[in-house]
Every structure is written in C-alpha cells, then in structure tokens.
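Box 3.1 — From sequence to structure: Carboxypeptidase
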Amino acid sequence: MHSLPWKTMVMTVALLQVCFSGEVESSLSLSDKITELPGQPQVSFQQFSGYVNVDKKKQRALFYYFAEAEIDPASKPLVLWLNGGPGCSSLGVGAFSENGPFRPSGEILVRNEYSWNREANMLYLETPIGVGFSFTTDSSSYKAVDDKITGMDNLVFLQHWFVKFPQYINRDLFITGESYAGHYVPQLAELMIQFNKKEKLFNVKGIALGNPVLEFSTDFNSRAEFFWSHGLISDSTYRMFTSGCNYSRYVSEYYRGSVSSVCSIVMSQVNKETSRFVDKYDVTLDVCMSSVLSQSIVLNPKQVTERIDVCVEDETVNYLNRRDVQKALHARLVGVNRWAVCSNILDYELLNLEIPTISIVGSLVKAGFPVLVYSGDQDSVIPLTGSRTLVHGLAKGLGLNTTVPYRVWFEGKQVGGWTQVYGNILSFATIRGASHEAPFSQPERSLRLFKAFLEGRSLPEMF
Ligand SMILES: *[C@@H]1O[C@H](CO)[C@@H](O)[C@H](O)[C@H]1NC(C)=O
Ligand SMILES: *[C@@H]1O[C@H](CO)[C@@H](O)[C@H](O)[C@H]1NC(C)=O
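Predicted structure (token representation):
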C-alpha cells in the first residue's frame, strides 16, 4: 500500500489555518491558484490547477484543473470528471471541449454558457500518468498501466488533493465520466467505499457515466445494429457483421494481434460502406474537412473508444501548447515535447477493455449509491442500445422495479431525450442529438441532465 501522510498533513493545514484565522482557503492550494488564463473573459469563480504526487519516490504526478462553482461554491457539491481512451485527457476533452467553463477559439477563450460549474465545483483529472500534463520521471512506469494501477493512483490523487483543499473533505462528492471512464469511475468509487471502512474520507453521493464501456461484448456488438438502422451499412453487410464476425470478436482478435480472415473481410466491407467521411462518434454531425484525414486513425488501438471533433481538438491542442497557457496552468511537459489529446507514451493494458464493470455498478447500487447511465444517441461507438440493455438487465438482476417508466424528458420546449428509472436509484437517459461527447454537441440538454442527477430528481416530464 501507499504511505499515507494524509492525517498529519491535514493537521498541519489545520494549524496553518488557525494562524491565518479567517482564511477559508488552505495555504497549500494558493500556489495552484490560476490568476488568469490567457484570453479568458472575466469571471467570478476561482480556478486552480497543478500537480499532485501519487508516489513520491518515483515522482509520479497527476495534473488537475479545478473550476469552482460560479455561484456560492461552498454550498455546491464536488464533482470529479474523467475522460476515457484509455489515455485521453480530461483537461483537453472534458474541460476545454465539453463541460468546462471555457472553449478555446483562436487566441481567446469563449465562455461556455452551459458549463457544469454552474451547478458544481468541477475537478478534471488527467489520468493515468502519461496523459496530458501528467507524468512520471521513471518512464518504465508507462508500460503495462492497467485499470488497477489507474484506480489506485486516482484514489491516492484525491486523498492528497484533499490536503490542498481541506474545505472540500466533507463535501458531497459525485464521480462522473465518459467512455472508458465506464471502467475508471465504478472502480474508483469501489476503492473509495473500501477506504471509507477504515477511515471515512470520501462522501460519495453517486456516479454518472456517459456512453460508458461497461460490458465489452454487449457494448461493442450493438454497433452493428446501430450502423444498419442508421443506413450506414447494407442488409447483407449487417448479416455478416452479426453472424460472420461481430465487432467484439474483431476487437478481441485485433488486440491479440491475430485478426482472422473472416473478420478481416467483414471489417473491410463495413469500413468501406460506413466511409471515413462519417464520424463514428456522431453519425449525423458533419465532419469538418480538416478532420477528414485524421478519421483514418480511428482504428488505431489507442483510439478505439475515444475521439472528439477534430475542429475543436485543433483549437484545444493549439491553446494548451502555448507557453503562456502552460505557465498560467502551472503545467510542465515532462518526457514529451507537446501536450496531446490522447497520450502517445502511455502503454495501456488494452485487454482490460474486456473486464466487465457493470457488476461493480450493480454492487454500488446495492450499497445505496445512485447511478446514472446516459447516452448521446448519435454515437455508434458505444451506442445507447447496448447501455440501455445493460442497465435494464442490471435492474432486473437486482430486483429493482421501474419507478419512472420509459418516457421523454424535456429541455426548454423540446424533447431532450428518453429516460427510465429503476428503484429510484438506477437511472438511464438518452440525450437526443448528442454525440459520444454529449456535453460537446448538446451542452444545454447535458447540463439539464447533470442538474437533475445532482439533485436526485427525475428529468422534467413536461415543459
Ligand atoms: C460474437 O461472436 C462471438 C465469437 O464468434 C460469439 O461467441 C458471441 O456470441 C457473438 N456475440 C453476439 C452478440 O453475436
Ligand atoms: C416489484 O414488483 C413486484 C410485482 O408488482 C412486487 O411483487 C415486488 O414486491 C416489487 N419489488 C419491490 C422491491 O418493490
């Protein structure tokens, strides 16, 4: 186990706070305070970013960005957001393209009107090591990083982060994320609950998962029907893609370096018909032309479950690679020349994809923790149908009856999506017209969903 200097450090902080009586903030967080991000509009909330060591000896350090709630942060919950990949950045994808307060646009940052820090104190973590600005000085640690290592690092990160921000220790804590975070989030919640048995530190109130990988075969095999029903593949190709070689079999063979000839034939037909000019993460959104070439990297092993609109990505890549921006963020580049959306140095144990996490979700629900699984309904990578099947199956297995029958929900005067709730604790919702990165393509609907989730309320039934 890791050595935990947490208790002593909290006491030190407490002492310091006595000296600075009246100071609400911990002095340790002050050096992480962001004075101003280059090009940002004036805002009323505070921002922090910097490093938290998760293993002093090896100099493994995880980078975070923290945007306090816009209004009355002391009354609002703490929300951790994690992007997937594995190996993609919660800073670049989550904060600067999806649900953070700003989006880069040329030289400046524009305000995201539907930022989740309207409702919560938002903490974005670049994890595991090797992602974004997170690093280790022992480069052999980038090898064979897996779900276990990531989960422990995330746990230690939060313990140590609380030393910097002791005012958040007892705050309601929600853990949220997307895509491969369907592994990270339940695994981290489980570790926290175990940790709490020794020492109550994490006031976990629920988890939310967007287009998550929860069970490899159900999630990946719902792709064929999604392609077919959206007209991306023909009837005959659909038949081949279900009975000749299904997608889970292909991916499984691919990551073992032994693609069979039948799978190779089926996949090349599927790829030919779907075309690289359609973004698999949003089958209806036009791709911007600058992104078209990059579409060919979709089958790169590191890219199987996570990619974002490349137009936004380009802006983010440019912005986060500016020296003045890195300085303002207290970020450093260690072992890499540039900040990248998805890590080029991390060597993740990709077969971990096949570990089911739906059972962990089940144990969380059973222990009384609310869970929301939501789906951007235009995503073909982790389609809504697979997630819906998994949530329904889980409810059935746990003996949870439907408390909100399948129905539409509203944002403004339009249908925001569909929802179903089981036992008042396990919820499923779609976000209409949303991509894999739902808060990017449907920010207003996503914020509505997020607010209902935090408040523990069902989604608006009327307008
Ligand atoms: C996918 O293919 C594998 C291997 O052929 C098979 O075992 C599995 O049942 C198939 N799954 C679906 C959903 O068709
Ligand atoms: C679920 O519904 C069934 C049938 O109406 C009922 O017998 C059962 O007690 C319900 N379970 C719960 C947990 O409410």
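Summary of the box: Residues 370-455 form a domain with the Rossmann fold fold (CATH 3.40.50.11320).
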